[in-house]
Amino acid sequence: MRGNEDLSQRSYLRRQVAHLEGVAVYPSHAPELDEPPAAVRHVTVVGNEVRSYTLAMDGAPGALVRRAASGDKTAWAPLVERYNSLVWSIARSFRMSGEDASDVVQTTWLRLVEHLDRIKDPDAVGSWLATTARNECLAHLRRRGRQGISLEVVPEVADSGAAPGEGVLARERDAELWEALNHISGPCQQLLRILASDPPPSYQEVGVALDMPIGSIGPTRARCLRKLRQSIAANAHRGNRMGSL
Amino acid sequence: MSPLSDLGPGDPQGAAEQPEQQNGDDELLLAELRHAVARFDPPPASTTEFTLDLLSWRDPDAELAALIADSRELAGAVRGDKEEVLFRFEAEPYAITVEAIPDATGKFRIVGQVEPGVTGQVEIRQGPDKQQLSVACDEWGRFEAYPVASGPVSLRLTPEGGHPVRTTWVVL
Question: What residues of chain A lie within 8 A of the CB of B171, using their CB?
């Protein structure tokens, strides 16, 4: 029993290390693992620059949910890794402050622990979490009647997220995109913020998070990305004008 | 299916149609945005650590008491952080009424009663990053606890000689 747990812990750790070293390049260089990976990194390369690492999750999460429901801790960490970014992004997309968003995230996961053995469709646990996070956000806003705050956050540890192979261009690009995101309309900001969670959420998850028909997500996404491009261009224009003064 | 899965190695002949080109551009922009968001607004490490710890909070042996009433959800309720809040939970055969009274420091005093009255122990669970409290309830089922932090809270009642009951999480 103990031995089994150690083994799968080690396998999970190795997966983590593989990510850090940028080894787990999907799809051709997936690392050899003792068990099918719950997570693999997509790496997006533009020119010589690594632009993004994206966690892509393989396999249905239902088995992890069932194992966690029976108290298996090695099944819990992959669930957290897979969905924590989504839950956080939903709270932030409702313009919650860092503290309030943390409360929403904590409460959402506590509710999952509370309901682990009664989730009707364990494979749809992502949608369950997204729905719960949305409801927590709405309840929070209703109760407190507080004004939300802007998504804009001072990047306190701006360079700590530097990934291997990443240079100054990627850093500037990140700043440019983040500023552009903060200058587009609320609904588009909300949709893109959730779509940009890591790993990418399913349209099912996005749909329940925003109470939006799945069929309209694709077209809305295209429209919002157009707005993001316009916002990038407008910011660049402002920057140039400032520079020439 | 992952939205990125249709990026793939793509069309080596470069004969992609215009809409597919647009879709590929959109996927790349979204991937870049994902990178930017991961840099500027990732889930705080403290939140992730908290979440990783949570499975040990599984409590399948205790009966789950549902939230029946929350005074903040009543029509015409006054909205404000300084107001006291009243909750009622039920799980056969118990009803638990809880009043959370904020003090000047933003902490709460919890005053509660279990009906029918039972002696026993009440744990105030505040998530793994906060102090856990355990207080006795008297023969009328009354109990009191201080200080309780804002954020998610759940009570766990162990009645003397009875089956344990846990309340669903509420947010103070």
Answer: 103, 107, 136, 139-140, 143
Residue B69 covered by a domain: yes
H-run or E-run covering A183 = none
Chain A residues with CB under 8 Å of B89 CB are none
Tokens of B40: 């500027």
ipTM of the complex: 0.82
Residue with the two structure tokens 């806003």: A141
Q: What is the pLDDT of residues B5-29, one digit of tens each?
A: 333 333 334 343 455 667 778 999 9
Residue A25 DSSP label = B
B contact residues 103-162, partner A, Cβ 8 Å cutoff: 127, 150-152, 154
Domains of chain A: 37-245 (1.10.1740.10)
Q: Are A54 and A200 spatial neighbours (Cβ–Cβ below 8 Å)?
A: yes
Cβ atoms A158, A15 nearer than 8 A: no
Residues near B89 by Cβ (< 8 Å), separated by ≥ 6? B65, B66, B67, B68, B95, B96, B98, B155, B167, B168
CA angle centred on B39, ends B37 and B40, rounded to 5°: 65
Give the C-alpha separation, B29 to A174, whole Å. Answer: 11
Selecting from B3, B33, B46 the residue whose C-beta is nearest the C-beta of A181 gives B33
Least confident of A55-69, A106-120, A129-143, A206-220: A55-69
Question: CA-CA distance, A76 to A88, in Å (whole number)?
Answer: 17
How far apart, in Å, are the Cα atoms of A71 and each of A7, A64, A67, A76, A165?
A: 17, 11, 7, 9, 39
pTM: 0.78
Q: Is residue B56 part of a domain?
A: no
Query: Domain range spanning residue B150?
Result: 62-171
- List the 200-219 stretch of A: residues with Cβ below 8 A of B: 200, 202
CB-CB neighbors (< 8 A) of B29 in chain A: 225, 228-229
Same-domain status, B91 and B142? yes
Q: Which residue of A has its CA nearest to B166?
A: A114
Do residues B124 and B143 lie in contact, with contact meaning Cβ atoms separated by under 8 Å? no
- How confident is the model over B69-100, as pLDDT tens digits? 998 877 665 555 567 899 999 998 999 999 99
